[in-house]
Amino acid sequence: MCARLILLLVSMSIIGHGTAQSPPGKDTEPKQEPFKPRYETRKDHDPDGTGKFYMGREIAQVMGHQGAGWLERPEREREEHCSKMLPALRLRNGDVVADIGAGSGFYTFAMAQLVAPKGKVLAVDIQKEMLAIINYRIRKGKVKNVQPILGTVTNPKLKEGTVDLILLVDVYHEFSHPYEMTVEMVKSLKPKGRIVFVEYRKEDKLVPIKEVHKMYEKQVIREMEPHALRHVETQKHLPWQHIIIFEKIEARKNDRG
Ligand SMILES: C[S@@+](CC[C@H](N)C(=O)[O-])C[C@H]1O[C@@H](n2cnc3c(N)ncnc32)[C@H](O)[C@@H]1O
Question: Edge-to-edge strands of the sheet including 49-54?
């Protein structure tokens, strides 16, 4: 009986000891769950959308290569003030820029001049027909610092840690796999490299673009939250679009995914 009592007291003291030794809160701290992208599908969706939703936003259909003429329309400068967008990028000779969703190369060739002679522009698109237009323009203009790249819907096929700035004009909202694309884009950036979103402002009903092709600033910021990016600034001086700028940070949140 006495031996049993001693055993009980000893075991209680072991339990008590163990509990007292744990640093306060250590065992109770909730584990950070890895971010998993969820793509919902819905039947009630915008006719120009895909019926696929990411973080509450409907993903738009990809603009076909037949729309290249619209990208090169003469009134684009008057409508979008494209020449006022470029200074926001603060490009310098020697920069390596990726124009993802380059289309017909509207911005590709303008940026190629800004980073020449030492820098280059990587023109990424998933449509071979768009890259054929870019290749034609390279040959015609004897352009030395534009490199066309055929990407996939999940991967822009850029080398890790090599890019200073990624430009996404009117394209992110039509990525079928925005999370996977962003993971790869972040990997391709150099430390402190930047990703710049130029999207039509959904906050402004007067912007004459279909709703599914516009994005709220808050939505873009929300979708970048799981990634190793810091929102630096949003510029709103263009008539239809906002310029939303992020910088790569060292905290490698993507590794959690
Ligand atoms: C509306 S156009 C914009 C073209 C160009 N940025 C401009 O402003 O003139 C969108 C382009 O993004 C491309 N695109 C869509 N999803 C893509 C992806 N995951 N990776 C690369 N390009 C993509 C389309 O093929 C299309 O050429």
Answer: 39-41, 49-54, 57-60
